[in-house]
Amino acid sequence: MHHIKPVELDKAYRLLNIGATTLVSARHEGVDDVMAAAWACALDLSPAKATVVIDKSHFTRDLIEQSNVFVLQLPTVEQAELVLRLGSVSRHDDPKKLEAADVKLFTMPGFENVPLVRDCSAWMIFKRIPEPHNEQAYDLFVGECVAAWADERVFSDGHWHFEKAPDGLRTLHYVAGGHFYAIGSAKDV
Amino acid sequence: MHHIKPVELDKAYRLLNIGATTLVSARHEGVDDVMAAAWACALDLSPAKATVVIDKSHFTRDLIEQSNVFVLQLPTVEQAELVLRLGSVSRHDDPKKLEAADVKLFTMPGFENVPLVRDCSAWMIFKRIPEPHNEQAYDLFVGECVAAWADERVFSDGHWHFEKAPDGLRTLHYVAGGHFYAIGSAKDV
């Protein structure tokens, strides 16, 4: 927890730029859910915006539609099993999904009603921008980032530096089934 | 060229899933352009759809709006300099942009009017789905994939296998400035 540092909002897009798989979390009236989403993407620089595809079958979607807030966070290689599990089971089918998966949630000051998943490498809180056509036709949600943090061991001063941190903190990039890639070597030109 | 093999359309989303930076290309009435876009994302499985953010300043955008076709292709680590260049210069400012960057284009049978960039690792041709609100408000374009190919050295049978190919063929993940990451190790759970 003591590694978590704020990210300037005009640099938050860089958290999403590398295309890592995300965990989406939300809370409404004390009910939490977390799901996996590979289809999250930056949409604008400043104010920072993002899109995320959330199918109608997801319990998390109901929470977002009611609370108008969602979190995109970047799980690490060490959380691959958790990501697969959160992406495979719906809270509609297992109300105890989060306990069963042993998901640890926390909150940040000023956002006491927004659940963040522990041990990820970065967190972005979004205010939903309602877009009924996109949500209905494409399951596509748009949000504006209102706060962001990162684990300073892998992201600080607006830049990722995975090469200076334990490999277990690298981001995950989902292919299919149980198959992921970790982010790799830096390439500077 | 002899490594290029078709990708089944219902597996095409896996090309985008790992969140690599893309090159966007388009042609209208014999005029080509190619730009870099980190903000491309899968949107649906079948038919495969994708979103891509293309600012109004880009020449490529005009070509897409006129031809209703665009290509998302995944450049490799070896093409990092090319990607940075194509992302920094607009054809509006330098009509000889493609020649100056030494971009090599090719086409595939059945799609003779769609320019693909050589030496990438994967290519997806999209038919634009016109979404005037998204395009104007967010610079967000939606497309349906009508054809896809990949370099079989890194993607075959619906799966990436970078670990079996030269490292120069790994995908690029853009952060900012001249700073990229290559995709890294496989992680299977």
Characteristic key phrases:
homodimer; 189 residues; Pnp Oxidase, Chain A; 19% helix; 45% strand; globular
Provide the fold topology.
The structure is a homodimer of 189-residue chains.
Chain A: E1 4-6, H1 13-17, E2 22-28, E3 31-37, E4 40-45, E5 48-53, H2 59-67, E6 69-74, H3 80-88, H4 97-101, E7 105-108, E8 111-117, E9 122-129, H5 132-138, E10 140-151, E11 155-156, E12 159-160, E13 172-176, E14 179-188
Antiparallel strand pairs in A: 1-10, 2-3, 2-6, 4-5, 5-10, 6-9, 7-8, 9-10, 11-12, 13-14
Known CATH architecture of chain A:
Roll
Give the count of helical stretches of chain A.
5
Distance between the termini of chain A: 34 Å
User: What is the SS-derived class of chain A?
Assistant: alpha+beta
Helix and strand succession of chain A? EHEEEEHEHHEEEHEEEEE
Shape of chain A: globular
Largest interface: A-B, 47 and 47 residues
**What is the CATH homologous superfamily assignment of chain A?**
Electron Transport, Fmn-binding Protein, Chain A
The radius of gyration computed from the alpha-carbon positions of chain A, rounded to a whole number of angstroms, is 15 Å
The average pLDDT value of chain A, as a whole number, equals 97
Largest sheet of chain A, in brief, is: 8 strands, antiparallel
- The residue fraction in helices of chain A comes out at 10-25%
- Counting structural domains of chain A, the number is 1
CATH class of chain A: Mainly Beta
Strand content of chain A: 35-45%
In the predicted model, the low-confidence regions of chain A spanning at least 5 consecutive residues are none
Question: What fold name stands as the CATH topology of chain A?
Answer: Pnp Oxidase, Chain A
As an assembly, this protein is homodimer
- The total beta strand count of chain A reads 14
